[in-house]
Amino acid sequence: MSMQEHVPAGQLDEATEALEELAGVLADDQSMEDALRQLAESVSRVIPDAEDVSVTVVTPEGASTAAATDERVVAIDSDQYAAGNGPCLEAARTRRPVRATREDGRRRWPEFARAAERADVCAYLSAPLVIDDDVIGSLNLYSSRESAFDPFDEALLRLFTTAASTTITGFRRYDRSRALIRHLQAALESRAEIDQAKGVLMAAHGIDDSEAFARLVAESQRHNTKLRDVARNLLASVRRP
């Protein structure tokens, strides 16, 4: 058996190790940028032809590079986003992997190709990132070799796109959870301040809970101010020397 026949198995072992390392990054509560950077570096290590790797994220506001192994591919990606076409964006639009050489690029995406050639990039492979059937970007490989990337590289890349999609999904859910917690904390704080303000009015004017709340609401409407702020101002006024 030739050494070349051993390469795929070795690459799969490396891919497995790299994905385990990525899981460790997530377990360590790193930022999404750190996790995606780790993923990009892992792809570059596992796929020999991938000299540089970037992660494109597409939102309603446009496309951006969330992580990259080298600043030169950030510049290539930026030119692609400005032109509105290129392998990264095509992979996201078509939901299919896109492999192209320098010659392909000159014909299909001239602006992108010029930027790639300035950075000595001769071949590129992009695969879409999909979350819940929504395309959110692409994982992109760059090489200075025209013959770079084969079907096995594409299959490996799909493993990493799954990991990238899972990473982004996890962090988005985490961000939503943190936002919800912040809102709940603010609501609890507001409720406490409003209850305290009602207590002040009840003690000062000999009124019940409902009347105290009604006065706070009336003050809020009269000055077009949030009820929480009315309560906070009242409490601040009684705490002054």
TrEMBL record:
UniProt keyword terms in alphabetical order: Transcription, Transcription regulation
Top-level division of the source organism's lineage: Bacteria
Residue stretches making up the ANTAR domain: 174-235
InterPro entries cross-referenced by the UniProt entry: ANTAR, GAF, GAF-like_dom_sf, GAF_ANTAR, WH-like_DNA-bd_sf
SMART domains in the cross-refs: ANTAR, GAF
Gene3D superfamilies reported for this sequence: 3.30.450.40, Winged helix-like DNA-binding domain superfamily/Winged helix DNA-binding domain
PROSITE patterns to which the protein is assigned, alphabetical: ANTAR
UniProt xrefs under Pfam families: ANTAR, GAF_2
Keyword Signal: no
Protein name from the UniProt record: GAF domain-containing protein
Species whose genome carries this gene: Saccharothrix longispora
